[in-house]
Amino acid sequence: MLRARDAIDRSDLDERSDFADPSMRFLLIQQFFPGPVAPGPMQPRRLVGELVARGHRVDVIACDLNAYNEQQEPEECFESPGGGVGRVHRLPVARGLRRGLSSRLRIYGRFAIAANRRGLALGRPDAVIGSIQPLFSGVAARRLARRFRVPFLLEVRDLWPDALVVRRLIPRWQGWVLERLARSCYFGADRVVCLTPGLKQEILRKGVPAERVDLFPNAFDEELFRIPPGTRERVRAEHGWNGSFVAIYTGVHTSVTAIECIVRAAAELRSRPDIRLDLFGYGQTKASSMALAGELGLSNIHFHDPVPKIRVPELLAGADAGIMTLFRSPLVHIY
User: Fold this and answer.
1) What pLDDT digit, counting tens, does each position of 244-263 carry?
2) Virtual CA dihedral for 241, 242, 244, 248, nearest 10 degrees?
3) Domains with residue ranges and CATH for the chain
């Protein structure tokens, strides 16, 4: 049993007046809801943990796989001493997210249909929360909110279909269809929450009223980054980093994060044996990036398996620099 109080750093829940609100029931449609140590954003878990800690009931409808490594994700239950309860309902979906865009779109669409059915079966909530990425989860959430005649809150994690259109991954007519679906979510939401200033800027450009758009940027876990003394020395010894200037990347390997750019940077540094690049993570472009490093005969770049999130701060402490790359795009400001 996962207790929500363990997921948030709050010791005064009962003393704060805003925790005295009457209990409500929320329905969250979030196709990819990572487990406690699985790769992926932790903000959805914190949101559920916070609502449960305030005494509310939250039903999460998610799929049964992780978006980054397709590992099986478990059903979960959150509880708090104040009576709040959260349940994660996992719906089975086909594997093959990384086989191509058409495969992903089929998986997204089929999940949205199944999520709509499960949401109807769960009964009327007090509010529905939908999350885009992917777009179809937001569409399912909007349909459920309209069916139950309750408020619809939309979280925007990625800009659909704009991100696909600028990369020319879909023809313009498909972009037009997806844009209509996206606008039905943006304009049909009672409140839109954006995770970056760039996303908010683009949503406002679409004409969504500013008073309905909020910015809730991602943050970091302060406790997680309290590094014990001696951590840097231990990590450097474990990875053979002593005597080298180490630059690391920790995260998903995709076309958006432009891992190939890091590989080509390593090629430019091949004459500097004192510098090494270490990449931790997984994603659909990892294999091709490793192949490119092999073709270029590079020995100064090292690819590692993904690590639990709790280990990322110590890796950063052991390194000398962090790397962040993004693909070239007119929408780069949304990331």
Assistant:
1) 999 999 998 988 899 999 99
2) 30
3) 2-215 (3.40.50.2000), 231-334 (3.40.50.2000)
